[in-house]
Design brief:
mainly alpha, two-stranded antiparallel ribbon, 3% strand
Length: 413
């Protein structure tokens, strides 16, 4: 009877986590009504249910499994909360603090699941499948005749593209580990939608995931030089074919090709082919955030306060600086910047120093995910995004597995 009850509890935990991740991918920015409730409200309900369930479990056993990654996360959340006192826009800061508290606690709860169940590979599958469902949903809901860039049926096209790029990394990793063709189908499905989002950053991350995973795996498992050479030539051919497709196929050109050409023209000081202003605005807002950071370099000016500050300029508007680095520096200063990116640095350090078999299994994926997150942060603000904190939990779970509890403490209540 106990075994049956344990099995049912385990299955419930698995289903609840998968439901939450899938809902985050599909409906996080969706305001369409589902059974009379907006999609994003359903996402929040799922997250709160998941948090409540695991909080009860932690209270029941009087135990919280802890990873030093979450020490950085706790300090980051504390700085966000404290910044309300001196924030340039206190109401905006308070709204973001509420979000930060929820997503950090959600991430900690996911970590409890990963450590107690040991089902890291299952969660990686959940993430990859959720990304595939997101891609299929976008394909079904998008208008192929009218729209140029896809993704707005789910959320911001750039955010959608980068989120899918990270999911394709996991799908490709699972293919390398399990050699099942289904993961290639997932990879291709998500890759196709990434190109259609028109996100240049996401397209770079999509290609980067392939190169990073392959070459780190080659280094880790000591592939033969001949094998590496063949793979390198193949990747070169694939990149050339992909470039040809983007610049030749009308749908891909309208979504991504013209934006690539525009970026090249702008970087050369030429007039944009499609009269684009987004690149110039991104640079302007990032520079403005850095200048504001210089006014308060230690503590910043309050998390989520830059949009209001930017709106005070005649050529500004109420929006983020479009760069996670400048957004955090302007909002929380050097302290906030260190605590947030301390999570990634600590993860890289633990992965590098681990020498066991589990480290060999997850090393390439941890390196690839963190590298993509760091590059993606150049063009997007994601410090409060749910998908970001789900990935942080997955990375923390892999770090735990690689270090065999060396980086763990247990807090007893």
């Amino acid at each position: 009877m106990k075994m049956l009850k344990s099995g049912l509890t385990s299955a419930f935990n698995d289903c609840l986590l998968f439901l939450m991740i899938a809902m985050v991918f599909l409906f996080n920015f969706n305001t369409d009504k589902i059974l009379g409730i907006s999609g994003n409200a359903w996402v929040n309900i799922c997250i709160l249910l998941f948090i409540a369930w695991w909080s009860i479990n932690m209270l029941k056993v009087g135990l919280i499994l802890w990873n030093r990654i979450y020490t950085f996360a706790f300090l980051f959340a504390l700085l966000c909360f404290t910044s309300y006192i001196y924030s340039y826009a206190q109401s905006d800061t308070l709204d973001k603090v509420k979000t930060i508290i929820v997503v950090v606690w959600m991430s900690i709860c996911i970590y409890q699941y990963l450590v107690t169940s040991g089902k890291i590979d299952l969660v990686l599958n959940m993430y990859s499948i959720s990304g595939t469902l997101m891609a299929l949903y976008i394909i079904v809901k998008s208008n192929f005749i009218v729209g140029n860039r896809f993704g707005d049926v789910v959320g911001d096209a750039n955010l959608v593209g980068i989120t899918l790029a990270l999911a394709t990394t996991i799908a490709l990793y699972l293919f390398f580990m399990k050699h099942k063709f289904i993961y290639i189908l997932q990879f291709c499905c998500m890759g196709y939608v990434i190109l259609l989002t028109g996100s240049r950053t996401a397209a770079v991350l999509f290609l980067l995931s392939v190169f990073v995973l392959i070459y780190i795996s080659a280094y880790t498992y000591h592939w033969k030089l001949q094998t590496i050479a063949i793979i390198t030539i193949t990747l070169g051919v694939v990149v050339c074919v992909l470039w040809w497709a983007i610049m030749t196929i009308p749908k891909l050109y309208d979504a991504l090709g013209i934006r690539i050409i525009s970026f090249i023209q702008i970087s050369k000081g030429q007039h944009s082919i499609n009269n684009e202003r987004s690149t110039q605005n991104r640079i302007l807002f990032a520079q403005r955030a850095l200048e504001w950071f210089a006014d308060s370099p230690i503590w910043g000016n309050g998390i989520n306060s830059f949009p209001s500050y930017n709106n005070s300029f005649f050529d500004g508007r109420e929006c983020f600086s479009h760069c996670n680095y400048t957004e955090l520096l302007s909002g929380l200063g050097i302290l906030g910047f260190i605590t947030y990116y301390g999570m990634y640095i600590y993860s890289l350090f633990c992965t590098w120093k681990s020498k066991n078999k589990v480290a060999l299994k997850y090393r390439a994926l941890v390196y690839a995910l963190i590298l993509e997150l760091l590059i993606g942060d150049i063009g997007l603000v994601v410090y409060y995004e749910k998908c970001t904190w789900i990935l942080i939990a997955i990375i923390a779970g892999m770090v735990h597995a690689m270090n065999n509890m060396e980086s763990e403490d247990m807090f007893y209540g």
